[in-house]
Design goal:
Elements (H helix, E strand, L loop, with lengths): L5 H20 L17 H26 L6 H23 L8 H24 L13 H36 L8 H34 L12 H25 L5 E8 L11 E13 L5 E14 L2 E7 L9 E3 L4 E4 L3 E6 L2 E6 L10 H12 L3 H6 L1 H7 L1 H13 L12 H15 L5
Antiparallel strand pairs: 1-2, 2-3, 3-4, 5-6, 6-7, 7-8
Helix pairs in contact: 1-2, 1-6, 1-7, 2-4, 3-4, 4-5, 4-6, 5-6, 10-11, 11-12
Length: 444
């Protein structure tokens, strides 16, 4: 069995990427033809149905050309066999699409769809190959090896995907619980999970498709009758260019005629704070990335939003991090002349003339730091409950007496809550009571 030449797989890999790219850009990363939109009656229903059927046919045609082109086949047989393959694949796709009707959670549905779509790609390969699957008499397609590889890939992807989805949904539910008004929760909490999941799925299906094609190419490489001139650099460049041109034409056509679901535009905003003072202070810049898809009535709707905070000291950037905590205020707040906090996510102070920025999510993993401990005490004593929650394990380890006292103060309402007025007081009392009972039983 000969090695696979890189030049021979460049165009197929590029074509497979183009298919997944179109699925993602057009808003159909699950590859479904059937979905809940069939129960709707509006002009967008026709657009969605056309888009999904078109991508379904395009993907099959592309794979058929890539997989069969190496073999010496009668073009008439190709046209006779293709409709039969198409019917088999369509029935298979519809059976898999029924999974969207299952009354289960989003995480469970995501896992089931991943497994079924992986199986769909495997069977799609087998159906398209048909009688050419055992083209060489002395070679058999390695079904067992492929099946083992697929099972491992499904387990790995499902674990990563479910962990990621659970993390994002838990974070969302946590912020909903903390907020007095659910209306304050921004779109990025509701849409980012779905967008990131779609992107992750597209990359995964592309990798699976490449594995399938490489296994076929490795099996058939020694029997290939294609001239080596087919794989020269100029020919590869032209073919890749034609592929890009075809994708561009399809995107333009979709945007003009059937725009629903397509990514319409991307916006980036960046605020710049410039200090002219001789005295250096902490400040922040904001970077915001937003991606929009065409929604109902051709209106653009944000499907992904990412906010980055740049911490500045004077005009020097010290640190940047993602702004993910829901809050009605997104500003710096001075605790005193030397201590500043940002939105429950960062603590800033100067030690020995050097600016220090500590992210709230890092505190529980840090070693004891007297300056940090004192800063946390002052911040929490002024009613900033979110910093108690994010530093709970740190304080339990290095300042348990203070932690016990402040939990009691929060439970009985003796601390002011001016800074944390966006957090539901019932949640604060529930948290304080449960942790007093769990870690400080003598305080009950």
């Amino acid at each position: 069995m000969k090695k696979i030449h890189i030049k021979r797989i460049i165009v197929p890999v590029f074509c497979l990427f183009s298919i997944e790219f179109l699925y993602f850009i057009f808003g159909v990363p699950t590859k479904n033809i059937f979905d809940g939109y069939l129960f709707q009656f509006c002009k967008e229903t026709i657009q969605m149905l056309f888009t999904r059927c078109f991508l379904f046919l395009l993907s099959i045609l592309t794979l058929n050309v890539l997989l069969i082109s190496k073999n010496k086949v009668d073009i008439t047989d190709l046209f006779v066999d293709f409709p039969r393959k198409l019917i088999k694949i369509f029935v298979l796709r519809m059976i898999i699409d029924l999974s969207v009707l299952l009354p289960i959670s989003s995480i469970q549905l995501f896992t089931i769809q991943t497994i079924l779509n992986t199986l769909y790609l495997y069977l799609l390969f087998v159906i398209i190959m048909g009688k050419h699957l055992s083209y060489s008499a002395n070679k058999r397609f390695p079904h067992k090896q492929l099946l083992i590889a697929f099972i491992l890939s499904i387990i790995l992807f499902s674990y990563i995907g479910v962990y990621w989805l659970k993390y994002r949904y838990d974070l969302t539910q946590y912020n909903i619980l903390l907020e007095k008004y659910v209306i304050n929760i921004p779109d990025n909490f509701l849409f980012n999970v779905e967008f990131e999941n779609d992107l992750l799925s597209s990359v995964y299906y592309w990798i699976v498709s490449i594995i399938l094609y490489l296994m076929y190419s490795k099996q058939q490489n020694s029997d290939s009758r294609v001239s080596s001139n087919t794989y020269t650099v100029p020919v590869l460049i032209v073919r890749c260019f034609l592929c890009v041109l075809g994708v561009t034409i399809l995107v333009i056509f979709k945007s003009l005629c059937f725009p629903y679901g397509i990514i319409s535009h991307i916006s980036m905003n960046h605020s710049n704070v410039i200090s002219y003072s001789d005295i250096k202070e902490f400040d922040v810049n904001h970077k915001q990335l937003k991606i929009y898809r065409v929604s109902y009535n051709n209106n653009d709707k944000c499907c992904y939003s990412k906010n980055i905070v740049e911490v500045m000291y004077g005009n020097d950037k010290i640190k940047e991090f993602e702004d993910y905590i829901v809050n009605t205020e997104r500003n710096l707040k001075k605790i005193n002349n030397e201590l500043t906090i940002y939105n429950g996510q960062a603590i800033m102070y100067v030690v020995g003339g050097k600016p220090v920025v500590i992210l709230a999510k890092q505190i529980n993993y840090m070693e004891q730091d007297d300056y940090l401990t004192n800063a946390l005490k002052e911040i929490i004593q002024k009613g900033n409950f979110e910093y108690l929650e994010c530093s709970y394990e740190y304080l339990k380890k290095y300042s348990p007496d203070f932690l016990e006292k402040v939990l009691s103060d929060f439970f009985y309402g003796t601390l002011s809550n001016d800074f944390s007025d966006n957090i539901d007081i019932d949640y604060i009392r529930s948290f304080s009571k449960s942790h007093l009972s769990l870690d400080f039983k003598d305080s009950e």
